[in-house]
From TrEMBL, chain A:
Lineage of the organism: Bacteria, Bacillati, Actinomycetota, Actinomycetes, Micromonosporales
Gene Ontology terms: biological process: peptide transport
UniProt-recorded Gene Ontology molecular function terms: ATP binding; ATP hydrolysis activity
Species this protein is from: Micromonospora avicenniae
Gene3D superfamilies: P-loop containing nucleotide triphosphate hydrolases
Domain of life of the source: Bacteria
The name this protein goes by in its record: Peptide/nickel transport system ATP-binding protein
Keyword Cell membrane tagged: yes
SUPFAM superfamilies on file: P-loop containing nucleoside triphosphate hydrolases
Annotated ranges, domain ABC transporter: 6-255
Homology family: Belongs to the ABC transporter superfamily.
One GO term describing the cellular component: plasma membrane
TrEMBL record, chain B:
Cited InterPro entries: AAA+_ATPase (IPR003593), ABC_transp_ATP-bind (IPR050319), ABC_transporter-like_ATP-bd (IPR003439), ABC_transporter-like_CS (IPR017871), Oligopep_ABC_C (IPR013563), P-loop_NTPase (IPR027417)
Family annotation (Gene3D superfamilies): P-loop containing nucleotide triphosphate hydrolases
Highest taxon listed in the record's lineage: Bacteria
CDD domains membership: ABC_NikE_OppD_transporters
Keywords associated with the record: ATP-binding, Nucleotide-binding, Transport
Keyword ATP-binding: yes
One Pfam match: oligo_HPY
Listed PROSITE patterns: ABC_TRANSPORTER_1 (PS00211), ABC_TRANSPORTER_2 (PS50893)
Organism: Micromonospora avicenniae
Domain ABC transporter: 9-261
Protein name: Peptide/nickel transport system ATP-binding protein
TrEMBL record, chain C:
Annotated source species: Micromonospora avicenniae
Protein name: Peptide/nickel transport system permease protein
Domain of life: Bacteria
One Pfam family of this chain: BPD_transp_1
Keywords linked to the UniProt accession: Cell membrane, Membrane, Transmembrane, Transmembrane helix, Transport
Similarity remark: Belongs to the binding-protein-dependent transport system permease family.
Annotated Gene3D superfamilies: MetI-like (1.10.3720.10)
Amino acid sequence: MSLLDVRDLSVVFQRRGERPFTAVDKVSFTVEPGQTVGLVGESGCGKSVTSLAIMGLLPKRGNKVTGEVLFDGADLLKLRRDDMRDRRGRDIGMIFQDPLSSLNPVIPIGVQVAEVLERHQGRDRRQALREARELLDAVGIPDPDRRLKEYPHQISGGMRQRALIAIALACKPRLLIADEPTTALDVTIQAQILTLLKQLVDDTGTALIMITHDLGVVAGLCDTVNVLYGGKVVERARRHELFAHARHPYTHGLLNSVPRLDSTRGERLHAIRGSVADNIPWVEGCAFAPRCDNVVDACLEGAPTLEPTATGGDLRCNNPVSEEVAVP
Amino acid sequence: MTERTGPLVELRDVKVHFPIKSGVLFDRTVGYVYAVDGVSLSINAGETYGLVGESGCGKSTLGRGLLRLVEPTDGEVVFDGTDVRALKGEKMRRARRRMQMIFQDPLSSLDPRQSVESLLLEGLKAHGLANDKAETSKRLRETLEAVGLPASALTKYPHEFSGGQRQRIGIARALVLDPDLIVADEPVSALDVSIQAQVLNLMKDLQVERGLTYLIIAHDLAVVRHISDTVGVMYLGGLVEEASSEELYREPMHPYTRALMSAVPVPDPVVEDRRERILLAGDLPSPSNPPAGCRFHTRCPWAQPTRCADERPALREVLSGHRVACHYAEEIAAGQIRPHEVEPELVRPAEGTAPGDPGELIPTI
Amino acid sequence: MTEPTTQAGTPAPRRKDERPGRAGGASLNRLGDRKKARLEELAQASAGKGGVSLFRDALRRLRRNPAAIVGATIIALFVLVAIFAPLIAPHDPVQRFDELTSQLAADHIPGATDGFPLGSDELGRDLLSRLIYGSRQTLFVGVLATLIGLAIGVLLGAIAGAFGGWVDNILMRVTDVMLALPALLLAITLVALASKSSQWTVILAVAIVSVPVFARLLRGSMLAQRESDHVLAARALGVKEHNIVLRHMLPNAMTAVIVQATLTLSVAIIEAASLSFLGLGDPNRDRAEWGAMLGDAGVRYFEVRPELAYYPALAIIIVALGFTLLGEAMREAIDPKNRR
């Protein structure tokens, strides 16, 4: 059994007096124990909303979540709020993009880590603080004894993200969701954090859902990658397969449009034309059709379905990029 | 592709220091943020100079100092033979037509209350170039066409456009004045990945068509390398390495450049699995209290007990056209010095900066 | 974003980097004509609209907000009543009616009777007519006080925000002093200075109290504008400094001030009423004023006939609420975070 099995998850935002907006549209994917799964896409593709829906962190009003989120076979969406709150932090940890706003500015870092242990593991304060110190040490925060007593604004962005990881890992969760954990950080700090995450996943055996817009981050980290567009999974493949033979024109376009450090300089980038504002609703056809180079008639006759590919992935496209075309 | 002539821009030992003020009733200067601390570089006409570095390294401040949007504390800024710093009032304002800027956040840099037409007209009016109505209208349309926007965009407002289109408006606003130099501060980092390529391609096309000279400031080494002829790497207010884009990628000589290069993720699992990362220990030191000697020595895996901690290395030409500010560049390149473990030093977020602000302090005039 | 039609977007213009050979051109030709037409139609739909300024955009959102509609309706009614008071009021508000005065007693003030729907006040005048005429006074005092406060405040704030430095420092210390004065104390002082109270002391007192609010708000948002990218962009374009202040900083900073003015109107009305309530307003007892009505008769005859207090109090509350609702709705509508 999969650790996490997301089935047909949909999130529809409905604000009064406005048209309903489908942010996540029947997304399904699974996470096996110890596996690292990537959710990749641009802003507005629904990747963050997906993670918030899994964690039960969407606001109570103004949205409708349907589908199933099976964690260990139990549907998280059916849990009462209290039970879900117990699960969060204990079974599932989460790391956010902005470490400063995710930490409480008026509580010392040590206490913030310790509180998680007290709440979920029933430790007393002294024991919890001792474990918090070990955790800070484990995530590579120098001089953890002193850091325990310090406040979030007193440490740097990279250190804050480490502290947040320590909090997320405090209860040894079996699943960690990282939502753009390095986007706010500099590259050299990003490299530190990614190395740390990889090492923690290897050491503790926790599964990781990595949400990012950066294909480079995914390339070094994820076992399986889900590419989202317009709220739907458009392509899913194992890491090496995806980067070597991207089949969906969107994935293919993304890979070709980013300048690579190791590519020949001055080569023209193959831009994807238009912007997400050009999308058409999925009920009308493929949302990506207006921007797609491979568009065919069928693309405007209802949404294509997600079909398994010969290489063990899934693909939602009527006219995929041929397998021979390797990404340069 | 581009004709090589003399330098259009020359910076000589430019410094931008911001005073840190404190006090209840009367502000007292209690220290300085050494945002840019002695940078010399030159940009040839028709070429692209890419300035790369992490937040807090002073790259944005240098770009603004060049345009005198912040006042340099010291040094010379020579643009096409004239010392920009010596220009006063109206003369400086006039000179701005030839040196334009593109901003990171296309929405916040466009006045939300003005239509695209009025945004584009503003610069023309400021330089008395909007006298003939028919002529002006033609000029606006041509500029919009050049950046790939329809003429119908003129009557619209910035908030009605998508991110990539807004950046096109920002480019059009700079372009309409027919400048020689464009300073682009993180021109694509606020845009979605699929849009970045459109904007980068557009900038490249415009350079070829109009013979523009670019100073591109970005944190993304891949972007900078892609678009630039020459790349300068900044660390904590100073230039640590400068070389042609190819050369820098082929043979990075400064330890910081090497670390930076090894940290940039490449969207290719084969490369990612093989590469060796040089992980830097700790964080960027505060620019208000930079380390003595080489500014990088506190994090440098190749740091040596002699010289590094007490003598600031000058930017010197190690190979032809390849300048490096490291005492031991040759020895490191030859493999005579091996990298070692570095104990991370604790770095406090800079005093006076807002919490969460990575420290790029840019007060404006 | 699966719904392009909800985007206040633009069509996909033909771009240079589209590479029509490889891209759209050829493949688009293969599309069924009907489908192609629909794609065009979709593009047209979003292209047709546009040119919507921030102001119109905010207005559109304002019209959809029930709070704004309620507030605007209250204010509209209030203004109409004030303007057409002589036509609406059944009686002269000053006249004492014999049929009412005859019934007045120490322990009795007549309630609703024929021709006098709300009954009499303590002097045998028609309460309804006085309430209706009272709206004129409230509108006059509230609007004038706010306008004076706004004018002085904007002047001070704009100077401080435009020049900065020591000018700013001095002006802000002055507003600090003004902030320290409570309206009541100021009014008493003004009355003492003027040797007798009038509605002008009330107007002036309320205006002066609102000056620092406007001044600080405008200065603050002008300073924020000064730091903003678009002001920097204008400077980089070589726009003259006074144009930057007048065309970029001031207009963008004024939005917040105008919203605040709407909110201040309600405060001004309440403050003016409370000053009158305390007898610091117009000494002319013939002039109907809600605060004075509440203070004079409402309190003294509360045991006898509480309606004398209820009605003017209710009037004050409803009108103040109207301005607050509209002001808050405006603030919400203008906030770019709420734009979709």
